[in-house]
Design goal:
about 325 residues, alpha/beta, Rossmann fold, 2 domains, 8-stranded mixed beta sheet, globular
């Protein structure tokens, strides 16, 4: 009996040691904006005060463009997700993008309000700050929901709309990135505020790509490092707790020319959601990319932005 107790004791100690080593190996403290800016806020990045936040943004292309294009990223992404589109669009168009509250270098909202209504107020405040009276609004995932909700709220200011694998309807996801599952789980999400294995981030990014082989170490670095921005991990938990509260019945109120882009391999917000948008928004056009996933604008910027450029060229 004593031998069994000793063996169990040794096993328990070993488990504690290995668990402790695992925590130490994946310990990931918050990083400051100043620390991250050297890599992620180089020119043409700027910061501006909006609603108590120091908002990270980029404003590129000709300033005399009467209808700037404003790009809104999705959950846990950043303005960098639009790099490929911006390279193509900024040649002839003014293109504005920024990190939404809870993400990127902008970080948490001081009131921890991540409702769609709060995001619409935020986007409106940014447009006001930049003096943008009319615009084309484009958004992916969460950013798509913010985009169409803003188009409903600001019908006189949003002239065209581009939805990229947009949220909006109750979702029946086929697969959810592991980082999102952790952020929704009490206990685990508290641990995630201090421990963040890089492999969790890599798995989550690969999950939203139609072809996971396209996910490079540099891409994982970006998602991983910006997740460590002070306050972002806690803000992500708040965001999931508050859900996506906009009323989907208002989607039928969208009355501007609308382009809907969708990756057929999107397992987070499946294609039937895109088909429903096309049905509910009168006169809209749905374009499906068979080989792409939840972030088609990032996975194949050239193919997707070419469709956008054609859409924008029409009166």
């Amino acid at each position: 009996m004593k031998i069994i107790v000793r063996i169990l004791g040794v096993v328990l100690v070993a488990c504690v040691v290995f668990a402790g080593a695992g925590v130490l190996a994946t310990w990931a403290p918050d990083r400051t904006v100043q620390d991250l800016s050297a890599r992620w806020a180089g020119a043409p990045s700027k910061f501006m005060p909006v609603l108590g936040m120091d908002v990270h943004f980029r404003d590129e292309g000709p300033r005399d463009d009467p209808l700037p294009i404003v790009l809104l990223h999705g959950t846990s992404a950043s303005l960098h997700t639009w790099d490929g589109w911006v390279e193509e669009l900024k040649v002839n168009r003014r293109v504005i993008r920024f990190d939404l509250p809870a993400f990127g270098l902008t970080g948490p909202d001081p009131l921890n309000d991540y409702s769609i209504a709060a995001y619409v107020r935020f986007v409106t405040a940014v447009l006001d700050k930049l003096g943008v009276q009319s615009c084309v609004l484009a958004g992916n995932s969460l950013g798509g929901q913010i985009a169409w909700a803003t188009a409903v709220a600001l019908q006189h200011r949003v002239q065209q709309l581009v939805l990229v694998d947009s949220a909006g309807y109750p979702m029946q996801s086929q697969s959810v990135p592991v980082a999102f599952r952790i952020a929704r789980t009490p206990g685990l999400r508290v641990l995630m505020e201090h421990v963040l294995p890089r492999g969790v981030v890599e798995s989550s990014v690969r999950n939203v790509y139609g072809d996971p082989a396209k996910v490079t170490p540099a891409l994982v670095d970006r998602y991983y490092e910006l997740a460590l921005r002070a306050g972002n991990r806690q803000a992500l938990s708040y965001r999931f707790n508050q859900g996506l509260s906009a009323d989907p019945s208002t989607i039928k109120s969208v009355n501007v020319p609308t382009l809907i882009l969708w990756g057929a391999k999107d397992r987070l917000i499946p294609l039937d959601n895109g088909q429903r948008f096309a049905s509910d928004i009168a006169g809209s056009k749905l374009v499906i990319f068979d080989s792409l996933g939840h972030v088609p604008h990032e996975e194949d910027a050239k193919a997707t932005v070419d469709v956008v450029k054609t859409f924008l060229s029409k009166p």
